[in-house]
């Protein structure tokens, strides 16, 4: 499932402190298992939303330009669908997606963020490097105030639990 790096839309994008959020964590599971948990819909449903939120639906077409759809749901039943496409699929190192584009890189009506996750291999643990890009500082601030660090850290711990169970 290796795709050539020249097909990536934002390979090694530089961090813009005014527009981007980043997170560097360590996941206590081998990189191949973290990759599985990042890319398989039934596994994504188990960790993608910070509990008590859930992810009742997920669709993955794991290729550059392929669909990435998640439906997050609050404890009171409010739903938050997010549709986009993969911009990077370099197994088992880099996974990128954006809601600025729909399947096959068609422009989307609106966008909030583009995400790049890089996995680095360290014996029995995995470096989990998140880079979230926003179109303007208001979106970045809104994402930060929604609890970006806390929420994405909690999801990474949930991802770790899923990966360790594989």
UniProtKB/TrEMBL annotation:
Stretches assigned to the Activator of Hsp90 ATPase homologue 1/2-like C-terminal domain: 28-162
- From which domain of life does this come? Bacteria
Q: Which Pfam families match?
A: AHSA1 (PF08327)
Family classification: Belongs to the AHA1 family.
Task: Please give the name of this protein.
Answer: Activator of Hsp90 ATPase homologue 1/2-like C-terminal domain-containing protein
**Native species:** Alkanindiges hydrocarboniclasticus
């Amino acid at each position: 499932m290796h795709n050539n790096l020249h097909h990536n839309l934002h390979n090694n994008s530089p961090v813009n402190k005014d527009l981007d959020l980043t997170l560097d964590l360590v996941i206590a599971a081998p990189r191949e298992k973290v990759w599985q948990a990042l890319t398989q819909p039934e596994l994504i449903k188990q960790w993608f939303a910070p509990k008590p939120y859930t992810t009742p639906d997920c669709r993955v077409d794991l290729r550059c330009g392929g669909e990435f759809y998640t439906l997050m749901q609050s404890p009171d039943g409010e739903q938050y669908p997010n549709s986009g496409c993969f911009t990077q699929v370099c197994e088992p190192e880099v996974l990128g997606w954006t809601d600025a584009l729909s399947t096959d890189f068609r422009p989307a009506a609106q966008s909030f963020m583009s995400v790049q996750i890089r996995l680095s291999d360290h014996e029995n643990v995995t470096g989990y490097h998140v880079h979230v890009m926003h179109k303007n500082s208001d979106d970045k601030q809104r994402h930060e105030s929604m609890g970006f660090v806390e929420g994405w850290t909690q999801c990474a711990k949930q991802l770790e639990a899923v990966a360790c169970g594989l």
